[in-house]
Amino acid sequence: MTEIFKIIDQSRSIGIFGHIRPDGDCMGSVTALYNYLKDQYNEREKHIEVYLDSVPENFWFLNRADEIRTDFPNNNFYDVMLILDCGSLDRIGAAQAYFPNAKTTINIDHHISNTKFADISIIDLESSSTCELLYTLMEKDKISFSTAEALYLGIVHDTGVFKHSNTKKRTMEIAGELLDKGVSSSKIIDGTFYEKTFLQNQILGHCLMESSLALGGRVILSFISQKLIHFYKSKPADYDGIIDQLRITKGIEAAILLIEMEENEYKVSMRSNTFVDVSTIATSFGGGGHIRAAGCTIQGPLSEVTYQILNAIEKQME
Ligand SMILES: [Mn+2]
Asked: Ligand 1 centre from 57 Cα, in Å?
């Protein structure tokens, strides 16, 4: 048994947390860990709770996804607080209030921007996903079909279906072992990654129509305004995949998607293809992520935010 599972074994109350606006790896890792522990311990032995700020609809099929709590009651106390797929504490949103009261805090993550905020940090930058890292920590014979499905989901999403440069030989081997547990790759890949709602396609189409090139055609930018968000009554999950579609434009080194969260506040998603380190740029604006995929929030008018980001990318291109 690895150290963290020994700590869990000796504890009574366990809280599992992921980042705000959960993606596939966040959702997969918290659900996988929750299933893994629930398969081993009954409620009398351990009180285990799992929280996310929301549960995207395309992940509802995962076993026990319906047990994920989206409310954050006051005064919760945990012997062990497990924080997954988060590079910094502010990423857990409302659950930050529980952090000072937890006896032991454990962070399992793979972001290069990780700030090592927990008592125990298990961070592996070589892992494609938190799910891949989590798999290496688990005892293989205790991984049920439900846990395997959740782990596979996270690996699929963070590797962009095994095609991003973070996909290593080990990633494929682990994915293969999860298939041996009965996971259906087409169900997970088509059902959660490629399938788009009509609304997602409409907004994607809009972003492609409105996109523009910068820095001699090496950067592509697009923008989602509050006006558009209100028009479509859309949520953050409706913008999934847009940045990835921008990134595969021929001749592009970096892609930027700006989402107007409120007046003079933009959520910036960035991707790069070969050499621009978007993690460093995101971190310099208080965000984080990976070398090829990162994000941050910047205050200011659109023209100023765009200028700052393009300026930071241009410096790396010189
Ligand atoms: Mn991740």
From this structure: 19
